[in-house]
Structures are given as structure tokens and as C-alpha cells.
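User: Hey, my collaborator sent me this sequence without any context and asked if I could get a structure. I don't really work with proteins. Can you help?
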Amino acid sequence: MALEAIDASAAGTVTLGGDLEIRRLGFGAMRITGEGIWGPPPDREGAKAVLRRAIELGVNFIDTAYAYGPEVSEELIAEALHPYPGGLAIATKGGLTRSGPGQWERDGRPEHLREVCEGSLRRLRVERIDVYQLHSVDPKVPLEESVGALAELRNQGKIAHVGVSNVDLDELQRAREIVPVVSVQNRYSISERESDPVLDRCEGGGLAFIPWFPLAAGRVGGGVIDRIAADHDATPFQVALAWLLARSPAMVPIPGTSSIEHLEENIAAASLRLSEDEVAELGATADSARA
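Assistant: No problem. I've predicted the 3D structure and written it out in C-alpha cell form, which is a compact way to encode the shape of the chain:
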């Protein structure tokens, strides 16, 4: 696909909470940190250049988290983009802590969520966070307490909208009984679709569904995907992203990268239009592979 044609606006938009319109192809800022999502990146200026290029390519939704670094991703976003351009929405998360590279521990205590939210406000240099998400349900803390803390932060004006991540249908329903929820962020890709029921609930309820690892951590390709990619003069990754966008109008993929080249390749997928037959064939092939 011609890189000169790339623009995230080609993916269309979705509106969160009735007032926050974002383009349906965003940027996930996890991989601009160091190896193992730990510490600073080896090329700090390069990471900031990726963020700036994302904005140039029409991205107006960036997803990050306290745990990415930790703190590093949020700091880089502010260093690269503040003062933020009009229309840019930043989503961040709290509820996971870090003890080392590749290590993730849950902490859904209300006092922890309040503390890390205050830290995110400072690092992002904002008075209110556009979307604040519970990063993961903590089995040691009642979900109602964790989500209740986010509801309080919303009432205080520190966050505009609440999202949840890594939830099942029951957890999503319980969260929605406490506070308006605008988005769900679960692991999902063409080859990892255990969250199909949650996605369908989001579509039916007017929530955005934000798939993390939308390219299955790079494990995309082979067979039908390669053939359809060749037919469109595209890459398998672009086909996988185009399939996600076609799967549901609620879908907001946020592929992440530390490379401008890969960023441009990902955003170019916004312009790739698959036929109904191709969408069905890709979906059926993925189902067969998982069976």
C-alpha cells in the first residue's frame, strides 16, 4: 500500500460517552519503553519521534498505563506532545504494578488507584484524564471497591471517562452498575478471540472495544492471510488490522511499536478495505485454526 496515502482518519470514528470522538485506529504506547516494558527506551528521542509521527498520521487516541515503564510511557508522551494538539485523547490505566522486566502484579486497592491516578495526572501534565481504565481485576479486592474508586475520581473531575480492562461479561456488567463505562480493553486479535462475547456486548451497548496485542504479538501470517495480503499489495499485519476494523464498528485497535516504519505500516491499514467474502474467510480460517 502506498505510504503517502496513510491517514488514521480513514478508519472512521467512534464516540466514547457521548462526547469524546476518536479515530478507530489508535496508538498503544507500551512498546516505547525499555525491554520487558521496563525502564527507559534505548533511544529516548526515537521514541518521542514515533509519538510525534503518530499525530502527523492522524492518530488522535493514545493508550498508555502507569505500569508501562513504570511511569516511563506517560512521561515520554508528555515530553513529546505537550501542549497537546486539539482533539487528542489520552487513555491511561492503573491497577497493575511492576517488580521487574516482564513482571506484572495486580493491585486494585482504592488507595493505590487514587495514588497512581494522581501520578498519571502529573506525568501527563493534565488536569483531567480523558479515559482512565482499571488495568486488571484484582482477585484480592472486590471489583466494586476498585471501580468505586474510579467513580469517585470521575465525580471529582480528575477523569472524564471510565474504562475497564481484562474483564469477562460478568465483571463488565458489575462495573457498569457502579459507573458509566465507555470502553473495554481485552486481549484480542484475528487469532485470539476468546473475548468475542465481550466485544459483542460492547457493540450492542455503545462501548468501544480496544484490543490489546491486536497483532498477536507479531504472530500473524500464513495461508489465507498471506494470500489476501498479496491480493491487496499489503502486509499480513495490515490485513489483520483491517479485519479487526471490519469485525465491529466498536473496535479500536491500538497497535504499538517503537519504529516509525512499523507505525506507518500499521496506520496504512486504515485505508485497506476487505470484501465481505474476505472478512468471512479470514474469520472462518481463524476459527478453524483455534479449533
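In plain terms: The mean pLDDT is 95. You can pass these C-alpha cells on to your collaborator as they are.
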